[in-house]
Design a protein that fits this description.
Distance between the termini: 66 Å
Protein name: AMP-binding protein
CATH architecture of one domain: 2-Layer Sandwich
Pfam family, one: Condensation
InterPro entries: AMP-binding_CS, AMP-dep_synth/lig_dom, ANL_N_sf, CAT-like_dom_sf, Condensation_dom
Organism: Streptococcus ratti
Number of helices: 24
GO molecular function: catalytic activity; phosphopantetheine binding
Strand order of the largest sheet: 16-15-24-23-25-26-27-28-29
Low-confidence stretches: none
Radius of gyration: 36 Å
Number of strands: 37
Length: 872
């Protein structure tokens, strides 16, 4: 660039500044656009090259370079003389893709290169492809139709015998880009700032869609999936828009926003929309070449009680207001929200500048075929609606982030949404259809666990069966000793007799306040034998919490392993129960509730979950078939605290099928080195635990650990931990289990694969027996890869909470059109393409600590009641 060759120096538009900033920051020519035009017929390359020279003389934007240095405002410099760069290549059509990729890889140097570059690929005497490459910083999509039309106009003129000089001397005047720059300078930026500030105010969601399906390696940086809607569908869309007095662009814009919101499980979404920038009242701007477009935010706030039509009208009103301020720089808009550059993560483009081959005025002896796909690479995901003879819907994506299969799913979901809007414009958002009919069938297969009948219906009868089969087998072992099945049965009967003599009745509720010992196990089974519902509590609970649970549960008896006095309850120390000459047996009627477990409550008050005996039987039936039945008799280790539901799976599955249960107390649990030796010496084959604890244990790494089955749950299971477990337990089976207390310990399971090193996250898997898992959004079933709340129904669902009222009963609902009874967990997840459930987080303020669900509001409530803490 020399001074003598400089024609003029201009400022940059805000959009150009943003593109230049990204270019300088990354060092990569991100905004690369490519169009391929296939020609059939006798084509003169020489006249085509001359036509390019005519274009560079006519349009100053094609002679523009960019000057920038640190500390100075960047400028665009129009050169007096600069020809459009071109190459002529002889190659067959099979080589075309590589040539196109080579052009993309080369990119552009914004300060040195011709920013429009053309490759003439000659296939044979009658076939040629012209590859137009340009940087978005000088031209927008609208320009391409003008550029091609002018190119063929001058090519036809040259073919007719007109000379290059004659054509140049008779060039028409064109729109001066400087006029647009001057127009931008006089706009009311204060008013625009105020408008956009209000639009993005209080927006806190991250609209970025994370890739959720397994990534597939590809050599391409970008990809595109296209869908061609039928004329019938377009006609129905047009009719709907006409009835509601909105534009087709608004219809697709709303559909895209709805897709993004539902994909991310949010009710408030902001995404970018490309506007033409040519609404300025400047003569000739429609025929001007240059970058006029801008990107502005669209905000969609969903109201589940409003219909599609209502939302469409609201968005159209927003668009009309936004048009008055659509010149405002996006970079400045981003500063108006705390998310900054993360405010927009997706783009919507409505391309109504279709390049019509018939309108290009190409010579009659040449047939023209144009690739009308537009590339947008600045955002990971964008939607382009191309208005042409037939509409085309394109999803453009970064292929280093998303797989082709995932984008195909996105397109399927998007098409399902637009069809649902057209077919049911009065439908409320809460009831919308998010998937195709084919995907619904697949989701149904994912959602259902095996339908299996249990081999027994009574826990006590099954336990007594084991006593007869294995009377001398050690049933339970704790830190103080062990007890056989026969001895345990006698101990249980002794406690049962004491309870009966003390006046307990079938259906009563019974607090068990014991350490994790044989006393606790005997107390649990004695409660069940009496037809009572047991309520396990921890000695570490303060008196206020104990009294609350006592009152809330309605318990009248307390079994403990020490002397404890609680008001309004009869306390029995199991260690002081005398031997009876004759045991009494309960004549208990059926009591459906086996136990009550208290979990952290959203109101700041613990909630007691009523769990049925049949639910526990269903759980142990599954666990036995999947794991325990591998052994005629084995040793199992219980790490879980006895007041948490993880203890249930080890206690009952071990003792109802003749195994030996090892109760690992806190001292041993938190001495990993000693525990490692204990597990090996006692040949423990099945062990439960949270990922946090198993990681602590594995960190000892004292050679090989004999555990063959790990039941891991309560927290996210890291893939690295799975690898570490396989290092010390080479032949082990690792089960990642998931389920809230309200669905009886485990609702899903996933058997990890020691050979799979590709997983970056471990699923929680598929439903257990007689269980149904659905990922839902309001009253809609979510598609594969689509975030939603996990709804669990089936045999494992509890009977609700002890203290029923609407305020704390929201989790147990009748969902969907069939009013299916189940539990809405508050956990957010999705189905992956293999039909495995994956968990990503929670929708409320609950957290998991050491596998236990904790409600932050409960901690807040307790803190407020502490005298040493003042609230302001």
């Amino acid at each position: 660039m020399t001074k003598n060759n400089i024609e003029k120096v201009l400022d940059l538009t805000p959009m150009q500044k943003g593109m230049l900033f990204n270019y300088v920051k990354s060092g990569v020519s991100t905004y690369f656009v490519q169009k391929s035009v296939k020609l059939t017929g006798n084509f003169s390359t020489q006249n085509a090259i001359l036509s390019l020279r005519v274009l560079s003389r006519k349009y100053e934007i094609l002679r523009t370079s960019f000057f920038y240095k640190t500390g100075a405002d960047p400028k665009q410099v129009v050169l007096k003389n600069r020809d459009i760069e071109y190459t002529v290549i002889k190659a067959d059509e099979d080589s075309l893709k590589k040539i196109e990729e080579d052009e993309k890889s080369r990119g552009f140097d914004l300060s040195k290169d011709s920013l429009l570059r053309v490759a003439f690929v000659i296939h044979d005497d009658n076939h040629c492809t012209i590859i137009w490459n340009f940087n978005h910083i000088i031209l927008d999509g609208w320009c391409m139709s003008i550029l091609l039309r002018e190119f063929f106009k001058y090519y036809a003129s040259l073919q007719k015998g007109n000379s290059f000089d004659f054509i140049v001397n008779h060039l028409e005047s064109v729109f001066d880009y400087k006029e647009y720059l001057n127009w931008l300078k006089v706009q009311d930026y204060d008013s625009a700032k105020n408008y956009w500030s209000n639009l993005v105010k209080d927006y806190q969601e991250n609209g970025n869609i994370e890739p959720r399906l397994q990534y597939e390696q590809t050599d391409d940086n970008t990809g595109i999936i296209s869908y061609f809607p039928s004329k019938s569908l377009i006609n129905r869309i047009s009719k709907l828009c006409l009835v509601n007095n909105i534009t087709i662009s608004t219809f697709f814009e709303f559909s895209w926003g709805l897709f993004l919101a539902k994909q991310n499980f949010v009710e408030d979404i902001i995404f970018g929309k490309v506007v033409s920038g040519r609404r300025a009242s400047l003569q000739g701007i429609e025929e001007g070449l240059g970058l006029f477009i801008n990107t502005v935010p669209t905000r969609l706030k969903l109201n589940e009680k409003l219909s599609y039509q209502s939302h469409l009208k609201l968005l159209y009103s927003q668009n009309l207001e936004s048009e008055e301020h659509d010149f405002y720089p996006l970079f400045d808009t981003m500063k108006l929200n705390d998310l900054g550059t993360n405010l927009i993560n997706s783009l919507f483009v409505f391309e109504n500048y279709f390049i019509d081959e018939d309108a290009l005025h190409a010579p009659d002896n040449i047939e023209v075929e144009i690739d009308n796909k537009q590339e947008f690479t600045e955002y990971p995901l964008s939607l382009s609606i191309i208005k042409q003879a037939d509409y085309e819907i394109d999803i453009n994506y970064h292929s280093e982030i998303f797989s082709k299969k995932e984008i195909e799913l996105f397109m399927s979901h998007f098409v399902a949404i637009i069809n649902d809007i057209v077919d049911n414009p009065d439908k409320k958002i809460a009831n919308m259809t998010l998937t195709s009919f084919e995907e619904k069938k697949k989701l149904k297969d994912f959602s259902l666990g095996k339908n299996k009948k249990t081999s027994f219906t009574s826990i006590i009868e099954q336990f007594e069966h084991q006593v007869l089969l294995n009377p001398n087998t050690v049933a339970v072992k704790d830190a103080n000793g062990s007890i056989t099945y026969y001895e345990l049965y006698r101990y249980i009967s002794k406690i049962e007799t004491k309870l009966i003599k003390s006046g307990i009745q079938s259906g009563d509720r019974l607090l068990i306040l014991c350490n994790k010992t044989i006393d606790f196990i005997a107390s649990v089974f004695a409660s069940i034998k009496c037809g009572c519902t047991y309520v396990p509590v921890d000695k570490k609970f303060n008196n206020d919490r104990l009294l609350f649970i006592l009152k809330d549960s309605g318990a009248k008896f307390v079994l403990s392993d020490f002397d404890k006095i609680l008001e309004d309850a009869k306390c029995i120390n199991v260690k002081q129960i005398e031997e009876y000459a004759e045991y009494e047996q309960s004549t208990a009627s059926d009591n459906p509730h086996l136990y009550i477990l208290y979990t952290s409550g959203t109101t700041g008050t613990p909630k007691g979950v009523l769990v049925k005996e049949s639910s526990v039987i269903n759980l142990v039936h599954f666990l036995n078939d999947e794991i325990y039945s591998k052994y005629s008799r084995t040793n199992t280790g219980m790490l879980a605290n006895q007041i948490f539901d993880a203890s249930v799976q080890q206690i009952f599955t071990s003792l109802l099928f003749g195994h030996t249960l090892h109760l690992i107390n806190e001292d041993l649990k938190f001495d990993p080195k000693t525990l490692w030796n204990y597990l090996n010496i006692n040949e423990i084959k099945i062990l439960d635990g949270t990922p946090s604890y198993i990681e602590l244990l594995i960190s000892e790494n004292q050679g090989q650990l004999g555990v063959e089955n790990y039941l891991i749950g309560g927290e996210k299971l890291p893939p690295q931990l799975v690898k570490q477990i396989y290092t010390v337990s080479r032949q082990s089976h690792i089960y990642n289990v998931y389920g809230p207390t309200e669905t009886t310990v485990d609702a899903t399971y996933y058997l990890c694969n020691s050979m799979d090193d590709t997983l970056d996250k471990i699923p929680v898997g598929r439903p257990i027996y007689n269980t149904k898992i659905q990922v839902v959004n309001n009253q809609s079933i979510c598609g594969i890869g689509m975030l939603g709340e996990i709804f669990i129904s089936g045999d494992g669902v509890a009977d609700g909470y002890v203290s029923f009222n609407k305020k704390n009963y929201t989790g147990f609902i009748n969902w969907g059109s069939d009013k299916e009874n189940g539990y809405l967990t508050g956990d957010i997840g999705y189905w992956n393409q293999e039909g495995q459930l994956e968990i990503v987080g929670r929708r409320d303020s609950q957290i998991k600590l050491n596998g236990h669900r904790i409600e932050l509001s409960e901690i807040e409530t307790l803190l407020i009641h502490m005298h040493a803490i003042k609230t302001y």
